[in-house]
Amino acid sequence: MASRRVLQIGGATVAVGTVYYLYSAGGNPQVAEKKLEHDMSAAGARLQGKDLSAKEAQKKGEVWAKEAGATLDRTVDNVRGEIKQADSIVTSKMHEAGSKVDQLKDEGTKQLRDAYKDTSKELQQTADNFDKTVTKKTEEAKSGISSWLGFGK
Question: Are 29 and 14 in contact (CB under 8 A)?
Fold first, then answer.
């Protein structure tokens, strides 16, 4: 009866262990097997007094540091590239804006000159017409006064 109880407890332990390793490996049996082997060798090393956990931790730390450094280097390179690209875009847009401002300035200056010429021409014509009208009316008035006084034609 006791041996049967030991078999039940042993079987339950194996089943729970199997479920644990499969779950922690994400359902992948090969990864679960590797984790089990690693844990068994670590347990064996502890029993024999050859605890390698500090060395393993150091190795894992070095690997992690290398990976983190490489990731950081890639990120920095990507950011530098994006900054360089943004800088070239901003520079390009500034040149475009400068050319557009120059173009608008030239167009505005031309329109202002054209408006000045047109206004000046119209003013000159109006002044000429005014002078002609005044001259004509003055002569008519002289002629009318002279004719009243008997000096007229």
Answer: no
The whole-angstrom separation of Cα 152 and Cα 70 is 114
Q: What does R_g of the chain's alpha carbons equal in angstroms?
A: 52
Given CA atoms 43, 45, 50, 54 in this order, what sign does their dihedral have?
negative
Compute how many other C-beta atoms are within 10 angstroms of the C-beta atom of residue 32: 20
- Please state, as a whole number, how many other Cβ atoms lie within 10 Å of the Cβ of residue 38: 11
DSSP state of 94: H
- What is the rounded CA–CA span in Å between residue 78 and residue 39? 40
* Per-residue pLDDT tens digits for 30-85: 877 888 788 888 777 776 666 656 677 788 888 899 999 999 999 999 999 999 99
CA dist list (Å): 151 to 134, 144, 145 = 22, 10, 8
Cα separation, 138 vs 131, in Å, equals 10
Mean per-residue pLDDT of the chain: 84
Which own/partner contact pairs does 83-87 have at CB distance under 8 Å and 24+ positions apart? none
